[in-house]
Amino acid sequence: MRNMFILALLSVASFAQEAAKPHEVEKLAPYYPTPVAIVTKMLELGNLHSGEKMYDLGSGDGRIVIMAAQKFHADSVGVEYDYDLCRQSESAIRKLGLVSKAQIIQGDIFAQDYSSADLVTVYLLPSSNDKVRPMLEKQLKKGARVVAHDFEFRGWIPVKTETIDDDGEGRSHTIFLYQR
Predict the structure, then answer these.
(1) Which position has the higher pLDDT, 31 or 122?
(2) What residues make up the domain containing 157?
(3) CATH at residue 104
(4) pLDDT per residue as tens digits for the range 113-146
(5) How far apart (Å, rounded) are the C-alpha atoms in residues 99 and 79?
(6) 114, part of any domain
(7) How many other C-beta atoms are found inside a 10 Å radius of the C-beta of residue 124?
(8) Residue 107: inside a domain, yes or no?
(9) Which residues pair with 57 in a beta bridge?
(10) Are 92 and 70 in contact (CB under 8 A)?
């Protein structure tokens, strides 16, 4: 009886210890910067307009967020888990004077609210797109657009697909446009 009591106590202690651990954020893609020409094409294909709200999931060094604010005059938000990439992005945003139009959230992509998004951009792995898709389906408003770089969203039919034969780095890129 005493052994069962100790086992139960250890079980509860183990459960409490697990529950107290911070949420483990899954890395959805390696950092691989999108060439600037492709960033432009993504935002053009997404038909981003001045004053619209744009989110970049896994924003890396912030180049999509910065271009959306600077060239397209959109309110842009990047979500990036990596601390150093967030600081790098924030520094570039400050230096360019874009603080009122661009911001970076250091955090988990799945812990954000995208219901105000007019456009969402992603450059994630196919398995990551599969994980993000249900959240976007639930949160995005009617008419919101999603632009995916190189990897499509399985189960969604793109409104438009563009292939850029060579970005100057010796490889082609495919961009998929979806609309809710």
Answers:
(1) 122
(2) 26-179
(3) 3.40.50.150
(4) 999 999 999 999 999 999 999 999 999 999 999 9
(5) 15
(6) yes
(7) 20
(8) yes
(9) 79, 122
(10) no
